Amino acid sequence: MDILLVASAFNSLTQRVFAELGDRGHTVRVELALGDEALREAVRRTAPDLVVAPMLKTAIPADIWSSHVCLIVHPGPVGDRGPSSLDWAVHTGATDWGVTVLQAAREMDGGDVWASVPCPVPAVAKSDLYRNEIADAALDAVLLAVERFASGTYVPQPQDTPGTEAGACVRPYFDQSLRRVDWASDPTETVVRKLRGADSQPGVLDELLEEEWYLHGGHAEDSLRGRPGELIATRYGAVCRATVDGAVWIPELRPRRKEGGPATFKLPAVLALGDRLPALPEIAAPWELPDGRRTWSDIRYREAGAVGFLSFAFAGGAMSTDQCRRLLTAYRSACSRPTSVLVLGGSRDFFSNGIHLNVIEAADDPARESWENINAMDDLVEALLTTTDRLLVSALGGNAAAGGAMLALAADEVWCRSGAVLNPHYRLMGLYGSEYWTYTLPRRVGDEEAQRLTRRALPVTAARAHEIGLVDVVVDSTPQDFGAVVADRAARLASAPATRRRIGEKKAARERDEAVAPLSTYRERELAEMHSTFFDPGAPYHALRAAFVRKTKPTSTPQHLKEGTSRVRTSGGA
């Protein structure tokens, strides 16, 4: 079928729906919801068989939904209505939720139901929940709804059908009055729930050091104490703030936008506060945390027999210069351990999205910070590529993009959860790219496919990535079970008879590749391109970065999304 995706942004869920439908042979195009007339023109131009809206913040015009079947993805169970469904799910402590695909109608969220899929609600941040459990359920619901539509026989069910739901629940917009933290009375669990419910957007508006800030993200701390509301420590860019019965770590802050002022953006809390921050102790966390500890660290290490697990969880998947360097230090420490398999990642949600554009944008010299950041990423990738005394596994529990996707390719094997989406390209940020991608990507998928991936700049499903050789194993698990499945598979890899032989062959293979073209050659060539971009004030990268960081609304749908994809899924190869 010809399917038009209508979305307020080409976000993670829209990307997944786009790629999964394309894998199944549908012709899929995207139109960003930038105005009713532009949407009408897109419908006239593409004449779609079906319109699907994976993420839409505005209503589809009545003249479109009255003449075309338009399926709306609502992140709530049947009967749930309103713009803040997930906020209410987190706020009320729901343990079970769902996603409903309904037909656009005059009443918002009140149309007939084409599909509904339930999902659990683990105690994670709202954005993590959205990208994982909600995205899994949404994809299943969309595929079912599309299949039902294609049959030509299915009749969608009105929401008031007996047995379908107990009654409509229209929830109001979840505004800041509901998010406000009362530091004098809210216990740690309540504070954490409020912070997690607004971790990515919109943040929790609060007063800190006599200024207004949006707080992003929250993690409980079990040992530090202080006067409720005061800042008591820092760690790796985050600040620790005391509650009535403990404390919480807050990784990121965003200043409230001043009237008429430029858009603000999230930064590591210590960097955002700058000179305002009083002298506080920097309290490091050990790589390995004892069982039962409740504290925050963005890098952790543990061992199980012959397997080491180096996990990292950076906000938004972005890796600043400092984070890259700390991860490299942790990696070298992990490599000093007597393990035969080292797993990188293995947690739910983002693997990595490459360099930290927000930190770069905030720097006094963004060009210089860009250069430092990409070199720190390259140092990390080089360390992986030159490790020959153990097998390395990149375990992608969530999405990976740009340099983060290339970081994964530096390992011997790439294991990817079935729900992850990969964006192995840099072009949309105006960059050539580095992280040794000109070495690792072609050796996995071939020169032709490498060029296609980087030039088309479209998302790739885990299944498609496996078909073309971008990943080695697709792990079909829930987000919560991914770590356990990876651990079990890693243990079997460590004990496999062939593993010792594979490790023994790594050094010779690296030497053969080095004789053909030294790693330094790839790095120097890539960095020459990056240097010319970073230090050219007129390069598109600078404007693209600023627009991305400040979430500037585009004026039109990018051409590569309008063209979309009509790829038919194949059994293998490029």
Automatic annotation (TrEMBL):
<dbReference type="InterPro" id="IPR002376">
    <property type="entry name" value="Formyl_transf_N"/>
</dbReference>
<feature type="region of interest" description="Disordered">
    <location>
        <begin position="552"/>
        <end position="574"/>
    </location>
</feature>
<dbReference type="InterPro" id="IPR036477">
    <property type="entry name" value="Formyl_transf_N_sf"/>
</dbReference>
<protein>
    <submittedName>
        <fullName>Hydrogenase maturation protein</fullName>
    </submittedName>
</protein>
<feature type="region of interest" description="Disordered">
    <location>
        <begin position="497"/>
        <end position="516"/>
    </location>
</feature>
<feature type="domain" description="Formyl transferase C-terminal">
    <location>
        <begin position="177"/>
        <end position="258"/>
    </location>
</feature>
<dbReference type="InterPro" id="IPR001753">
    <property type="entry name" value="Enoyl-CoA_hydra/iso"/>
</dbReference>
<dbReference type="InterPro" id="IPR047180">
    <property type="entry name" value="HoxX-like"/>
</dbReference>
<dbReference type="InterPro" id="IPR011034">
    <property type="entry name" value="Formyl_transferase-like_C_sf"/>
</dbReference>
<dbReference type="Pfam" id="PF00551">
    <property type="entry name" value="Formyl_trans_N"/>
</dbReference>
<dbReference type="InterPro" id="IPR005793">
    <property type="entry name" value="Formyl_trans_C"/>
</dbReference>
<dbReference type="InterPro" id="IPR009188">
    <property type="entry name" value="NiFe-hyd_mat_HypX/HoxX"/>
</dbReference>
<dbReference type="Pfam" id="PF02911">
    <property type="entry name" value="Formyl_trans_C"/>
</dbReference>
<feature type="domain" description="Formyl transferase N-terminal">
    <location>
        <begin position="34"/>
        <end position="141"/>
    </location>
</feature>
<dbReference type="InterPro" id="IPR029045">
    <property type="entry name" value="ClpP/crotonase-like_dom_sf"/>
</dbReference>
<feature type="compositionally biased region" description="Basic and acidic residues">
    <location>
        <begin position="505"/>
        <end position="515"/>
    </location>
</feature>
<dbReference type="Pfam" id="PF00378">
    <property type="entry name" value="ECH_1"/>
</dbReference>
